[in-house]
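Homework help board

Subject: predicted structure for assignment chain

Our instructor gave us this sequence and asked us to write out the predicted structure in token form, then describe one feature. I got the tokens but I'm not sure how to describe them. Can anyone check?
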Amino acid sequence: MQTYGFPQLEPSTTSLPFEENQLTHSRALDRALILEAQVLDCVLRHDAKRVGITPYIHVTLAFFSSRPQAPASHGEGGCLMTRLQPLVNWSLFAEVLDKISQSTESGNGGHEATAQAPTDPFPCLFQDITGMERRAVNPLPEDYEIRGYAWESHYLPQNWFAQDSRDHDERSLEATWMDKQRIARCVWLRNKLANQTILP
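My token output:
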């Protein structure tokens, strides 16, 4: 199996027990982060224009941008992203993001994707004449996979799912506007990560 130069941990002779043990927790976290970096590296080496990797890239960016200050483990002062950062091929990540952003014109459901700066509002949100925040498009299928995670509130707007009248099966169907919306979000998330000096 090709390892792409990732550090290899010595295989354990026994399964790691679920216990409040800092060393055990740290070792399990290291294994998870290495696996995440390896999977991401494999995905990034596919042709973004021919293979549908944009949803995966979108969720990965959303997670990375939402967790820069997350504690790495119980009682440790480090951050999750601090431990993950040296494992990720950020130059390859940036190269793939460039290809994705150039693959189609940014837009979402007829509304121009203007949320480019990290301080801009969430893409596809706009204000009506009363000043109320409105949604230009429905949630993406992967938004429902993000729903319920602790970091959801750091990414998706409040009450993001409240106005979605589609049934469960319809939510998972792809529509023509979705890829453009994903690209708009990826551009926005990339700028957030660049602002955090994580992505070039």
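Reply (TA_rk): Your tokens look well-formed. For the description, you could write something like this. Residues 22-195 form one domain. That's the kind of observation they're looking for.
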